[in-house]
Amino acid sequence: MNSKSDKMRSVRGTRDLLPAETGVWQRVEDEARAIFYAYNFREIRTPVIEQTPLFARSVGEDTDIVTKEMFTFDDRDHESITLRPEATASVVRAYIEHSLYNEGGIQKLYYIGPMFRRERPQKGRYRQFYQIGAEVLGSDQPTIDAEVLEMLRLLLSRLRLENTELLLNSVGCPLCRPKYLAELRQALDRVKGGLCGDCQRRAVTNPLRVLDCKVEADQPIIATLPSILDHLGPECSQHFDRVTAELRERGISYTITPRLVRGLDYYTKTTFEITSGALGAQNAVLGGGRYDGLSELLGGPPTPGIGFSIGEDRLVLAVEAAGAVKAEEKLAVYVAWLGDTALAPASKLARELRELGLSVEIGYEPIKLKRSLGIASKLGAQFTVIIGEGELASEKYQVKNMSTGEQHAMEPERVFQFVSAGVGAGLAPAS
Ligand code: HAM
Would you say residue 383 lies in a domain? Predict the structure, then answer.
């Protein structure tokens, strides 16, 4: 319990993103939005709280997320509420609740926002983290799977993220999976004595989840288990072949990874992850796959779907490590005024420059020129406009280029054009 005078801190596993970091976050989100626009995805925003059964039913009763990681509480009216651990279930719930299927055709939706999982915090793993995700509802065509992966490749290349690997698998469907699960159970019966406690339980309740196990000592045993790819039925097998063929056609390389069953129960057919060599233990930048039965599971009409979620925290870490994307947030102009009579014209100039879309700061109290210039250079201003009694009398303001030190006197009207022409990229005036 905090005593009254203790400094308050953020909750374990959550963090503040300070202005020095948010520039890169904005850059990543801008790039993502531009690419979603290009691929005709539209934004959906769903609440961060949902009724608990939504996740129990979709993500699965037996998954780590549902058994260990959800922030769940009883509301005052005793309804069980959960902070969303992921958004696919919410998007499909919204799709059904608002009958988006009546709009006809395919729904291509994207979202950006916080998710909550009570995991053990470490670099790249937080209890409040952010996802940039997209879902396509209404088609089971393998072309969509390939297009979604193509879109992701474009985003990663725009962010100059190299050293990534696309891991690909198919987890079959309710027609072919039971036979595989029966074999998996049999195999597990023989070896489960050597596995961790969680896996011994999962071997009985949900054997597929054994394949997600991260316990080091279990890995050699898990490696001997039968592969789902050897058990796909004809439809799933053909679907997977078409996805891989379309990826090759688009020049997208991938690594088939039969153990990639992902930690959520709703998947059918294609599953994938993209990992980054720039990250440490938590190297999955994003994950996704098909979930052709999810809509029905949540009470909706049969609707195939596929999507992905990028861990934005991890994407930002990887982008920063690659060092290729910098968010230049340079201040264009600092307006320095000297003497009370200069305040009003200085404020007017600052307002008009801001109306042009330039980033402008002004002194808020009367100070000497030297200090003003000191502040302007500390703020990284590209230009300082100086307005004092002399400038007011001559009706010419001094404009100082802070990087070259050059200074010119000019009529107030000329300042706009001079400064606009001189400011660096990324600060183009709003039209
Ligand atoms: P997921 O694999 O659970 O899938 O999460 C996707 C990504 O979110 C992970 O690859 C990782 O980058 C990030 N992530 C997950 N947990 C954390 C955490 N504690 N801290 C930081 N980042 C984290 C899903 O959430 C599915 N909804 C993906 C999907 C969409 N499948 C179909 N459509």
Answer: yes
Give pTM, 2 decimals.
0.92
User: Which ligand 1 atom lies nearest to the CA of residue 307?
Assistant: 33
Please check whether residue 5 lies inside any domain of the structure: no
Ligand 1 nearest atom to the CA of residue 262, by list position: 2
| 108's tokens | 């291509």
Residue 4 maps to a domain: no
- Answer yes or no: is the C-beta of 313 below 6 A from any ligand 1 atom: yes
Ligand 1 atom nearest to CA at 286: 10
Model pLDDT for residues 269-318, shown as the tens digit of each residue? 999 999 999 898 889 999 999 999 999 999 999 999 999 999 999 999 99
Query: Does the beta carbon of 135 sit less than 6 angstroms from any atom of ligand 1?
Result: yes
Cβ within 8 Å of residue 135, ≥6 positions away: 88, 91, 92, 107, 108, 109, 110, 305, 306, 307
Same domain, 213 and 236: no
Residue type, 379: L
Residue 363: which CATH number?
Answer: 3.40.50.800
